[in-house]
Every structure is written in C-alpha cells, then in structure tokens.
Amino acid sequence: FHIRGRKAERIGLRSVLTRVLPLPLLLLLLLLLLAVVPSCHGCPDKCLCFSQTVKCQNQDLDAIPHSLPSHIKSLFVTGNNIPPVDAKVFDNLPNLVRLDLSNNRIQNFSERAFPHNNTLRVLNLSRSFHNYFFTDGVLNGLLSGNLIQLTVLDLSSNDILFPPENVSASLLRLVSLNLQNSSIISILNGTLKAPSLQDLDLRDNSLRNLPATTLAELGLKPGDHMEGYHYRYEINSDPRLANLSINSDA
Ligand SMILES: *[C@@H]1O[C@H](CO)[C@@H](O)[C@H](O)[C@H]1NC(C)=O
Ligand SMILES: *[C@@H]1O[C@H](CO)[C@@H](O)[C@H](O)[C@H]1NC(C)=O
Ligand SMILES: *[C@@H]1O[C@H](CO)[C@@H](O)[C@H](O)[C@H]1NC(C)=O
Ligand SMILES: *[C@@H]1O[C@H](CO)[C@@H](O)[C@H](O)[C@H]1NC(C)=O
Ligand SMILES: *[C@@H]1O[C@H](CO)[C@@H](O)[C@H](O)[C@H]1NC(C)=O
Ligand SMILES: *[C@@H]1O[C@H](CO)[C@@H](O)[C@H](O)[C@H]1NC(C)=O
Ligand SMILES: *[C@@H]1O[C@H](CO)[C@@H](O)[C@H](O)[C@H]1NC(C)=O
Fold it and tell me: What total number of domains does the chain contain?
C-alpha cells in the first residue's frame, strides 16, 4: 500500500477500508501479505529462507525443492520423504557447504547430484536411507560423487552392515565419520584407511571381531591380549572405540 498525501486523505482511506472490512481482518490480511512477500523473492514453498540458509523441515516433500536461492551455504531438507537424490539437483548451489538430509527415505543417490567442483564440507545422512536394500546403491552414488572437500559425514542410524568401501579413495579430506547405531557386523580390510580421519563413531553396532589390520589402519596398536585372528571383542566396552579419536601422530 502506498498511502501518501495529507492527513485527511489517509484518515479517509482508512475509514473507507474499515467500513468494508473490520480492522482485525484488515490487519490479518496485511500480515498474510507480509508473510507471502519473501516467497516472491525465490524462497520455495514450504521452506524457510534465511540469509545463507534454507530449511525445509518436516514438510512431506518428495523432492529437493527447485529454485533455491543460489547463494546459500547451508541447506536442511530433513524429515521429509525424499526417495531419490537426482542428478544435478545441487548444480545451482555452487556455494553449498553444509547439507542436511537426515530423516528421509532415500533410495537412490545420483553420483552427479553435486557439481564437479562442489565445496561441500558437511553432509548429514543420519537416518535417511529408506532401508537396508538401498544402502549399497546410495553409498556408491555418494562415494562416486566428487565430494573432494567433504570433512564431516554423518551416516548414523542407517541399516549399514559394512562400512562403505573406498571411503579413503573418494573422501580424501574426511575428518569425522559417524556410523553410530547402524548394524555394522564387520569392518573389511582397507575400509577405514582414510588419510585424515580423526573421529570415528562406532557406538551401538553389532561388531564383535576387530582384526588387527583394522586397528593398525586406525593408527592403534592392538594390546597383547588382542593379538591373533580369533580374539573376540566387545566394541561397546572399549572406550577408545566408543568414540575413537585418532591423532595422526598417536
Ligand atoms: C545430523 O542430524 C541429526 C538429527 O537428524 C543430528 O542429531 C546430528 O547431530 C546431525 N549431525 C551433524 C553432523 O550435523
Ligand atoms: C538409481 O538410479 C540409477 C540411475 O538413474 C538407475 O539406473 C537405478 O536403477 C536406480 N536404482 C533404484 C534402486 O532406483
Ligand atoms: C564450477 O564449474 C563451473 C563450470 O563447470 C563454473 O562455471 C563455476 O564457476 C565453477 N565454480 C567454482 C566455485 O569454481
Ligand atoms: C537407531 O536407528 C534406527 C534405524 O535404523 C532408528 O529407528 C532408531 O531410532 C535409532 N536409535 C537412536 C537412539 O537414534
Ligand atoms: C573400490 O575401488 C577399487 C579401485 O579404485 C575398485 O576396483 C572397486 O570396485 C571399488 N569398490 C567399490 C565397492 O566401489
Ligand atoms: C586383511 O589384510 C591382511 C594383511 O594386510 C591379511 O593378512 C588378511 O588376510 C586380510 N583379511 C581379509 C579378510 O581380507
Ligand atoms: C568424540 O568426543 C569428543 C570429545 O569427547 C567430541 O568433541 C566429539 O564431537 C565426539 N565425536 C563424535 C563423532 O561423537
């Protein structure tokens, strides 16, 4: 509303409007108008946009929203029903640093979801795989996806039986990997040989055997009682592995 002019005219207009609509209803309309204005500037439906962050949470979305503001650094699309993460969905977000897709039902993750020169550092996929059957596909897409800057990966609370292979080859800068509350029964040779990994969370899994080679990969020296192939091991009872912090010089 552009209301200009002398006081008398303003009063006149207001009284005309309040005669047509009661004042509370008028205020409500004004508020609605204000609430709608930001979405005219590129904020997708069902999302909240802040200066560098967009949040689309618990909205029953079945796709990553299109037309996100291209300058954003953080995107939260959590608690929805996203089944596939398609090719190129993040191509128009060149500055994206943090992506949270936790609590979804992802079945497929395109290896071309992110632009080749993306700068993503934090990726949260906690409790976001649809179920066990889709785990390998999702992880393969993810690990083939050029996430060269990724430092934090949260894969907790998914039905993962084995930690993803080739983490070391794909995620060269990975510092923190959360695999808590998965269904991990074993760690295959070579899986955790990520060069810069410092934090590995393996709490609440079904691990029993932890081969000495795996400990060595993690920069740990097995104690005497751990030597040999057949030792049994309660992962949850070893505080070092409850929340493993490895320094490269440890
Ligand atoms: C990932 O999301 C879950 C909740 O959905 C949260 O508890 C956890 O802290 C998040 N992890 C990271 C690394 O942000
Ligand atoms: C995932 O996507 C790829 C490529 O688009 C397709 O070949 C594959 O069948 C899909 N997998 C599932 C489980 O939908
Ligand atoms: C990424 O690559 C595209 C072309 O492939 C280019 O237009 C863009 O400027 C690059 N972005 C960065 C951050 O290097
Ligand atoms: C553990 O993961 C399952 C899904 O695999 C989830 O339903 C459950 O809530 C998670 N538990 C905790 C404590 O996060
Ligand atoms: C891991 O990488 C090796 C060599 O780069 C490749 O031969 C193998 O198929 C990869 N494994 C998976 C599960 O992608
Ligand atoms: C793991 O690697 C070690 C030596 O690098 C080897 O002795 C052992 O047989 C391997 N285990 C498996 C299951 O491949
Ligand atoms: C491990 O513990 C340290 C300190 O106790 C904490 O700062 C860090 O966030 C924890 N890492 C994970 C993956 O839980």
Answer: 1
Distance from the CA of 32 to the center of ligand 6, in angstroms? Answer: 65
Judge if the beta carbon of residue 140 lies within 6 A of ligand 2: no
Q: What is the pLDDT along the chain (250 residues), one digit of tens a residue?
A: 443 434 434 445 555 555 666 778 878 887 777 665 544 458 999 999 999 999 999 999 999 998 899 999 999 999 999 888 999 999 999 999 999 999 999 999 999 999 999 999 999 999 999 888 888 888 988 988 899 999 999 999 998 888 887 777 789 899 888 988 988 888 777 777 777 888 888 888 877 666 666 666 666 555 433 332 222 333 444 444 444 433 333 2
Polymer length in residues for the chain: 250
Q: Is residue 36 part of a domain?
A: no
As beta bridge partners, residue 244 has: 200
For ligand 4, atom 4, the nearest C-alpha belongs to 157
Domain assignment of residue 175, given as a range: 42-245
- Ligand 2, atom 4, residue with closest C-alpha: 110
Residue nearest to atom 2 of ligand 2 (CA): 108
Stated as kind and residue range, the H or E segment containing 167 is helix 167-170
Report the half-sphere exposure of 104 (CA within 13 A, side-chain side). Answer: 30
Ligand 1 lining (C-beta closer than 6 Å) = 78, 102-103, 124, 126, 152, 154
Q: What is the CATH number of the domain that holds 177?
A: 3.80.10.10
Best residue among 108, 109, 133, 144 to mutate for probing ligand 2's pocket (most ligand atoms within 8 Å of CB) is 108
Q: How far apart are the first and last CA of the chain?
A: 67
Radius of gyration of the chain, Cα coordinates, nearest whole angstrom: 25
The answer to whether residue 18 is domain-embedded is: no
Nearest residue (by CA) to ligand 7, atom 13, is: 201
